């Protein structure tokens, strides 16, 4: 069933075919959405352009969320190509590899700022630039992880950045809800083997622990996350906003098992 016919979506965070954003873009397209895909820079441009060709020759453009100019240029691109935007997918994060292992208290001032800037503030800046373009009942979503609300060894500053991201989701939901019913939500994905995830110390242990203990006795995969993204992009979620939706095979509900 096509749930997104006629909807226009912009997806940030495709780096390669394993990216969660890749699965989301494919699922949005399969449900009838038109896409704009962005790449961070030349390193990821080729993979993004290849995916865009497969997904109805979707337009692509650069968007480095560290730069206000780049975010402004993305706004102009979206305006030219789409006019109005129904769905914004924020599926990106960054922290220095050395801050994703060892003691959290060893986080440097600059590493803390960088992680929060790219991983959390970017959603605020994107919403500020794109909000004039949001269609009525548009849907914004960002990807988060359990390390925001629990201490997950090695996740460290990224957990703090995800806490800021989830809090921003609530404030943005409050800001944007009165502007034509725009919704803002987060998906808290279970661990998935991607380039970013491999930067987290002992990531394979996280994967095997979750698969052994989660109520569904498996890890979530990117396609599971994409299904939730289709729901959040669609009118089926028309009264859902400010939420963190866990797509983690149920791991977050556990106490001691
Ligand atoms: O286990 C996982 N993989 C989980 C990921 C569990 C729960 C949440 N997430 C989140 C991540 O924190 C992130 O927010 O999902 C989102 C997508 O992550 P991913 O799909 O796991 O990772 P990846 O395929 O590496 O894509 C993230 C991309 C970057 O990739 P690389 O590997 O090149 O750093 O984020 C992009 C970049 O393409 N990115 C940026 N995009 C624009 N501007 C920037 C930037 N400044 N920095 C990083």
Name of the CATH superfamily? NAD(P)-binding Rossmann-like Domain
pLDDT averaged residue by residue: 97
The number of distinct structural domains comes to 1
Order of helices and strands: EHEHEHEHEHEHHHE
CATH class: Alpha Beta
**CATH architecture name:** 3-Layer(aba) Sandwich
Q: Biggest sheet, in brief? A: 7 strands, parallel
Percentage of β-strand residues: 15-25%
Q: Which ranges are low-confidence, i.e. pLDDT below 50, for 5 or more consecutive residues?
A: none
The helix content, as a percent range, equals 40-55%
List ligands, each type once: ligand 0WD
Radius of gyration, in angstroms, nearest whole number? 17 Å
Total beta strands: 7
Order of the strands making up the biggest sheet = 3-2-1-4-5-6-7
Envelope shape: globular
What structural class should be given to the helix and strand makeup?
Answer: alpha/beta
| CATH-derived topology | Rossmann fold
- How far apart the termini lie comes to 38 Å
């Amino acid at each position: 069933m096509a749930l997104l016919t006629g909807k226009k979506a912009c997806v940030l965070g495709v780096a390669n075919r394993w990216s969660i954003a890749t699965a989301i873009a494919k699922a949005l397209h399969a449900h009838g959405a038109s896409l704009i895909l962005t790449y961070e820079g030349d390193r990821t441009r080729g993979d993004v352009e290849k995916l865009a060709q497969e997904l109805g020759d979707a337009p692509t453009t650069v968007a480095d969320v560290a730069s206000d100019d780049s975010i402004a240029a993305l706004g102009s691109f979206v305006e030219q190509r789409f006019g109005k935007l129904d769905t914004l997918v924020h599926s990106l994060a960054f922290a220095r590899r050395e801050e994703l292992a060892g003691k959290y208290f060893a986080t440097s001032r600059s590493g803390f700022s960088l992680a929060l800037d790219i991983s959390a503030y970017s959603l605020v800046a994107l919403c500020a630039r794109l909000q004039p373009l949001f269609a009525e009942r548009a849907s914004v979503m960002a990807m988060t992880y359990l390390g925001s609300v629990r201490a997950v060894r090695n996740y460290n500053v990224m957990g703090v950045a995800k806490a800021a991201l989830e809090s921003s989701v609530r404030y943005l939901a409050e800001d944007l809800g009165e502007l034509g019913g725009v919704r803002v939500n987060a998906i808290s994905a279970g661990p998935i083997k991607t380039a970013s995830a491999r930067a987290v110390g002992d990531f394979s242990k996280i994967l095997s622990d979750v698969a052994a203990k989660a109520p569904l006795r498996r890890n979530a995969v990117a396609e599971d996350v994409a299904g939730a993204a289709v729901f959040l992009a669609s009118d089926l979620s028309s009264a859902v906003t400010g939420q963190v939706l866990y797509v983690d095979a149920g791991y977050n509900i556990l106490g001691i098992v």
